[in-house]
Design brief:
The protein is of the alpha/beta class and 319 residues long. It contains twelve helices and eight strands. Helices cover 38% and strands 16% of the residues. The chain has an eight-stranded mixed beta sheet, with helices on both faces.
Length: 319
Amino acid sequence: MKFLALLLAFAAGIAHAQTGDEQIALDTPSGQLAGTLQLPAAAQDKPRVALIIAGSGPTDRDGNSRLIPGRNDSLRMLAVALAGEGIATVRYDKRGVGASLAAGPAESDLRFETFVDDAAAWVGKLKADPRFGSVAVIGHSEGSLIGMLAAQQADAAAFVSIAGVADGASNILRKQLAGKLPPDLVPENERILAALESGTTVDPVPPALMTLYRPSIQPYLISWFKYVPAQRIAALAMPVLIVQGNTDIQVEVAQANGLQRAKPDATLSIIPGMNHVFKHVRADPALQAAAYSDPSLPVSPLLVKAVAGFLHKPAPAAN
């Protein structure tokens, strides 16, 4: 316990390191995407830079969601901590979120590839910036799949998955709903999922399932369901780090193991005691819920050590 306390104190010190940040934007045909460039405090020639991609839903560049009260600031803290390790980062509000709200399309026009193309464009912007060396991609949760696709598309130098899943989104949804639906909705749910997996929209949708499968979201689900992370990570040619906390109540360690089996040359780092938002919290539902809204909890120093150590390894000659 004393060792853990020292580590947490160390992390808090990192979080207050004198690093600099500046606003940065990506111009797209449908509007600007807003981001934050976090720079190392110590001047250095062409530091490595990493693009940080947030998870699902209205999660903003700092790791906070309007659907969850309060803040956890997980992505902001990670960016500051990495700056303390000499690594620059860019984190951004996805289109339709935060300061990028105006760039969001109508729900019926949204596709998973929209987020992938945006991330790839950010990588391209950073690769063209003469201030930086090689460009890596860090994807958290759903951002892991977005990140691995964008890293391949934009030829990034390295990829880091944090709390990413190995299974396809439709199978994850099946597992999450198993045993939770009324008996009469079980076949209906499977009928809808099977149709969307085959690329076909569904009508009608039972009212009880409308929130999940409303007509306006079905094209997005079809575009998302066709990507299986385990298959996509296997195709990456750059160095890969897979990180997973073992007290994450949203993503099981088995998912990280599945990614590593698909990509045997990837580095796997299981962080003891780390939850989904990078905080050291026991796997107790009440404590976990509180941690999602507590910005006073520092991010895991073991996470920072794993990611910084990986990114400080010599980059491939070509980026």
